Sequence to fold (363 residues):
Amino acid sequence: MDGSRARTLPLVAAVCAVTLLAAGLAGCSGKKTSSSAATSSASSSSAPAPAPPAGSAGDLQAAYEKVVKDVLPSVVQITTGEGLGSGVIYDDKGHIVTNAHVVGNAESFKVTLATGGGTVGARLVSSYPDQDLAVVQLNDVPKNVKPATFGDSAKVEVGQIVLAMGNPLGLSSSVTQGIVSAVGRTVSEGSSGGGTGATISNMVQTSAAINPGNSGGALVNLSGQVIGIPTLAATDPELGNGAAPGIGFAIPASTVHTVAGQIIKSGKVTNSGRAALGITARTVVGDNFAPAGVAVVSVTQGGAADKAGIRAGDVITGLNDTAITTMQSLTEALAGLKPGDRAKVTYLRDGSEHTATATLGEM
Fold:
């Protein structure tokens, strides 16, 4: 159910195919028949981050053990008719946040809690494929349900030690260790193999192993705070599209808060925070059959493109300083912008190049 792709390598998440500008990415949910595939109650609010323990190796080991003991009970296994993935308990009402590609088209699930007691039925509250997030809710909330504490995405720094918790390859309640390798990554997830095709910005890159079944689980700092939801793992074509070790991606806690909070409150995402031009478009190819731009099929009346004078038939070739050759490149360029931002759009009309400034709307 996960797939992933990256900018310098092709990346793949646990069961979804993904592309990150230069690498491949794959999602991380696991199919039952295969071993392949990577807020809000008071208890899920941000808490002050205590300094990680320093000193002997024994101190660090004790810190690991404490984090695992504290957080693992908040990580669950989600099983659908087609596969399995992970989820994180979001509040004491039994809401669980996971990846949209984990739930797929299913509306009912079996959830296995790390605290034991067998499986619990759950239903879909809503799925938001554009950010590859979804919320499900337990039909009956056990007394020992333990919501996770989510951290502050702004405090995530390269080099921080993190643990990835989930159910890789169906091995329940597994933990891997690594560091935050980078922040602010924009990753495009393929739509084949169960992926949603989402382009997600501000992702956390980690060296902690992300394997099929990890999708929807928890990326946790040494303060016991969930800083992200593991979603994608990189694949390397030179390895036959096998996993590229040490390159995984997690949706940041801030995005999880925004999407899950709206779903729980309204049953859907009412404010995406994602920039849009307000067009329907398709990739076009040039004389050499290589992608050459994005042809505007239709323009939303009153939308950003309409107000900027862009019309059906125009071919967009640039957005600000980014060359636009495909729909994916346009989506990735927009992912780094916000509604209300002004963007220079370069386009061809009747063979002549034009530019226009568009005030971006919201997806």
